[in-house]
Design a protein that fits this description.
heterodimer, A: FAD/NAD(P)-binding domain, 3 domains, 5-stranded parallel beta sheet, 9 helices, B: alpha+beta, FAD/NAD(P)-binding domain, D-Amino Acid Oxidase, Chain A, domain 2, 23 strands, globular
Chain lengths: ~425, ~500
């Protein structure tokens, strides 16, 4: 089995595959060490769900790096995958061995996600130095040891942006504002409290950047309030002097390799369409973690990676039978997307399954999460609130196996009671 | 103090660089001065990158003549300099019956200008050539000599080839005034000293009239006209053909075109501006570009945009190119008003300038050592796996990918930093290697490239810039709060 990417998803898949009996498991990682983006996430808050401990990112990563070594997972570091064929022939390169050709019995994608950029938002203004994505700034500060600026404005209330607001403040910089175009937070509420409120960094909702100013280096940004259609409201402009604009405006699953293999992608998640075992549309290809859809907690990435790794090990061992009948899952009221997109009802015979979803709009009161099969309610749960920044899960019990054998479609809705 | 040059060319755009190269065919001491941190820092880097056939310009104009002549030179030039170009023709699309006459007029004008290979094709044939085109297309003017070029590498390659053939290039050197002696222009004053020469070629783009004013010439003015653009992710949107709408009196209209690297590019609008450095992208401008382009290709999706930018056309008050050796300022040759089709015309403009210099008395003795060929640096992503293996065997740095989207290796970056015209900044590397030009727009490579530039140029990381002094990418080391902590 070959795992593309040694972040938390890929590592979890590799360890789980070894534990499931896959003999030769190789993780190919483009960085010089395993752990992925966790290595630059030096704040704590990792592992509460998966390990029952509160760890900083590198410590959480190390836990799985150790597990990988203990279970005999092989690794190729500082190595970039160039191409994968649908027959699972992999071409990769590094400076020690040159171009390497490998053949895998199963492939697990663990490429993670990338950040949306200024270009993708088409922010008007000049194009000076001093515009970075929050993750790039995080690497500069936490790994390379450089401060990208002195006075910051952060666009977007994504988690990395809020965490960087705190980090930069601790390093002696001034963070003038965090601006969020939506009327609600896009990251986790705990980050708002711990990273912004505790450091007196103002969060301004329903505001965005209208223009970037400065010729060589950013000199100011102009912020503006937006209406409910997210259009700028004239007269609400504010010029904020700063030398750096950080963007924390969303993450996009990194699926260029998957696309070139011909794997079907879901336009809503930007990740592969997967079944309950994290299998993609092309046999022998599995997907682990943020490459499927962007999770808010790394713990979920680990758990999803384990599912992918076990499925891939089963595929190699010939234990996977193609599904005779599959249900399509789909998004109902106030649901943006549901993962997995396909569900084999027979999988319920082996244990409960979980649907993961994100809501479109926040609801700060009790809501009912309802699953229907061809229009008939089969499961529900209550949540105290739902927010777009926080993933919602709903369990399908094994007893549902029988009744779902004849169903076609599962729909999930989030309803006010 | 310094030995006089034969010719100083001011301006490292495509015209200046090709002129310097054209002059390097002769036994001349040539100096090229560029105020930016890299050649190709102005209009040449922000345009539509189309090789125009030549049916647009008014018959008899310099634009018409040099466009058609330049077009003929492109194939050989790209071959010699190792620059990407494609010659699959260009199309002007008529979306309504009343536009059919415009196509006829353009074809007629093209004939007068001496453009070969113009034909009017049906809407259905047009749709076959470009399936993404709006199905309402009625007909199109097909110009088979049209094409696209990599504008960065054309300019950079010309400069590199000039350097290889003996030209001196000085970057970050701004001309502040002209020097005069015995009634002649005898050199230039710059922020790095005075350089004397027999002739000065003014190829300053939007600043051409500033130099002309320094020579006491006031009959011509630059009226900068801004154009804005979108670039799309090549994995998502991919038009195959160069598509023009029917032109209006002020502009060729919003074009939808592939770039030589396979991205879809749309733009430009046309907005007169007072400022010579107004490359500010505006919301109104972008909206105009997007809706204009959607008339041609309705499926364009803003979610696939990876970058927006603006450029300035160095449009002149005469409406035509202004290329002369004025009697009032002997020793000076002006190359001004080089707006579209300037990029196409540039090779012919360079020859025209050489002819002017000859007429002015510059002796042109052929340089026997002149080598017209420039071997392009290898691009790892374009090689077969076997070729990649050979390259890595020679230099292991070609095995390390630094930019993941465009698959650019450390070997390519280091080679560009030490090339004949060195890439000293992040943007200079971007234009040569395409690092950071993909969908993540440098998010992944920037920290790595800062380290490589610092190492290769033997400077601190805090001295590494995006595009020259003042555009430093990082401010200070962490923990080092003594050098500027809580803002200013």
């Amino acid at each position: 089995m070959a795992v593309i990417g040694g972040g938390p998803g890929g590592l979890a898949a590799a360890v789980a595959a070894r534990e499931r009996g896959a003999e030769r498991v190789l993780v190919i990682e483009r960085a010089e060490e395993l752990g992925g983006i966790l290595q630059q996430c030096i704040h704590n808050g990792f592992g509460l769900e998966a390990l029952g401990r509160d760890l900083p990112g590198p410590a959480y990563a190390q836990h799985f790096v150790n597990r990988a070594h203990e279970t005999g997972v092989q690794t190729l570091l500082d190595t970039m995958v160039l191409e994968i064929t649908p027959q699972r022939r992999i071409y990769a390169t590094n400076s020690r061995q040159g171009v390497i050709e490998l053949c895998a019995g199963a492939v697990v994608f663990g490429m993670g996600c990338r950040e949306r950029t200024r270009g993708a938002l088409a922010i008007p203004g000049t194009r000076p130095a001093g515009v970075f994505t929050a993750g790039t700034a995080q690497r500069l500060v936490n790994i390379e040891g450089y401060m990208p600026g002195r006075r910051f404005v952060i666009l977007g209330s994504g988690d990395i942006g809020m965490i960087m607001a705190r980090r930069l403040t601790l390093e002696g910089a001034r963070v003038e504002r965090v601006l969020e175009i939506m009327p609600y937070l896009s990251g986790l509420k705990r980050n708002w409290v711990q990273c912004l409120q505790d450091f007196h960094i103002p969060l301004q909702l329903s505001r965005t950047v209208l223009e970037i100013r400065g010729t060589q280096r950013v000199e100011a940004v102009v912020s503006v309030a937006v209406d409910d259609r997210m259009l700028p409201i004239a007269g609400t402009e504010e010029t904020i002097p700063c030398d750096t604009l950080l963007l924390s405006v969303g993450l996009i699953p990194e699926n260029e390799l998957s696309r070139r293999v011909g794997i079907a992608l879901d336009p809503l998640t930007a990740g592969p369409i997967v079944d309950e075992g994290m299998g993609t549309s092309v046999p022998g290809f599995y997907a682990a973690g943020n490459v499927v859809h962007v999770y808010d907690l790394v713990d979920w990435v680990t758990l999803a990676g384990e599912v992918a790794g076990r499925s891939a090990a089963d595929y190699i061992a010939g234990r996977v039978r193609p599904a005779v009948h599959r249900l399509r899952t789909c998004a109902g009221e106030n649901v943006r997307y549901v993962v997995p997109q396909w569900l084999d009802p027979e999988s319920l015979a082996l244990g409960a399954q979980q649907l993961q979803l994100r809501v479109r709009r926040p609801v700060e009161e009790k809501v009912k999460v309802v699953v229907t099969a061809d229009g008939v309610e089969i499961a529900h749960k209550t949540e105290r609130y739902v927010r777009p920044g926080e993933m919602v899960t709903v369990k399908l019990a094994p007893e549902l196996c029988e009744s779902l054998r004849s169903a076609q479609e599962l729909q999930v809705s989030v309803l006010k009671p | 103090m310094n030995i006089p040059y034969d010719v100083i060319v001011i301006g490292g755009g495509v015209v200046g660089c090709l002129t310097a190269r054209a002059l390097s065919r002769y036994q001349l001491r040539v100096l090229l001065l560029e105020r930016g941190a890299d050649v190709c820092s102005g209009t040449s880097k922000a345009n539509t990158a189309i090789i125009h056939a030549g049916y647009d310009a008014k018959p008899g104009s310099l634009k018409a003549r040099l466009n058609v002549a330049g077009n003929r030179m492109y194939a050989q030039l790209c071959e010699e300099l190792g620059v990407l170009s494609e010659r699959h023709g260009t199309y002007v699309v008529a979306m309504a019956d009343e536009e059919l006459r415009t196509l006829e007029e353009l074809r007629e004008r093209g004939k007068q200008n001496g453009v070969p290979g113009l034909s009017i094709i049906s809407g259905s044939r047009m749709l076959q050539a470009e399936p993404l085109l709006n199905p309402q297309a009625r007909a199109a003017l097909y110009a088979e000599t049209g094409g696209i070029v990599d504008p960065f590498m054309m300019t950079i390659a010309a400069a590199e080839n000039a350097v290889t053939n003996g030209v001196t290039v000085m970057l970050e050197t701004e001309v502040t005034d002209l020097e005069r002696q015995d009634g002649r222009i005898s050199g230039v004053r710059t922020d790095s000293g005075v350089f004397s020469s027999r002739f000065v070629v003014n190829a300053c783009g939007v600043y051409a009239d500033t130099i002309m004013a320094q020579a006491g010439l006031t009959g011509f003015r630059i009226k900068p006209r801004k154009g804005e653009y979108y670039v799309f992710d090549r994995e998502k949107s991919r038009v195959r053909q160069v598509l023009f709408p029917c032109p209006t009196p002020v502009s060729k209209g919003i074009v939808v075109t592939p770039t030589s690297h396979g991205n879809t590019l749309i733009g430009p609008n046309a907005e007169d501006t007072e400022s010579r450095d107004d490359i500010v992208v505006t919301k109104q401008g972008l909206d105009e570009v997007f809706s204009g382009a959607q008339r041609l290709v309705p499926s364009l999706d803003k979610r696939d945009v990876i970058a927006v930018f603006a450029g300035l056309r160095a449009a002149g008050s005469s409406g035509d190119f202004w290329i002369d050796a004025p009697a009032e300022a002997p020793g000076l040759v002006n190359v001004a008003g080089i707006e579209s089709p300037g990029f196409t015309a540039a090779p012919a403009i360079a020859e025209y300038v050489v002819d002017l210099l000859r007429e002015c008395g510059l002796p042109l003795v052929p340089n026997r050592a002149f080598n017209p060929e420039r071997k392009p640096a290898p691009h790892f992503s374009e090689l077969s796996h076997t070729q990649q293996q050979e390259l890595i065997a020679k230099d292991p740095r070609y095995g390390r990918i630094v930019c993941r989207c465009e698959m650019v290796t450390e070997g390519e970056i280091v080679a560009a930093i030490h090339a004949p015209v060195p890439a000293l900044t992040y943007d200079a590397l971007k234009r040569r290697t395409r690092l950071g030009a993909g969908r993540c727009q440098g998010g992944f490579d920037t920290p790595r490239v800062i380290n490589i530039l610092a190492r290769e140029l033997q400077v601190a990381a805090t001295a590494v810039t995006k595009r020259g002094f003042g555009s430093e990418l990082v401010r200070r080391k962490t923990k080092d709060i003594g050098t500027g902590g809580m803002g200013e």
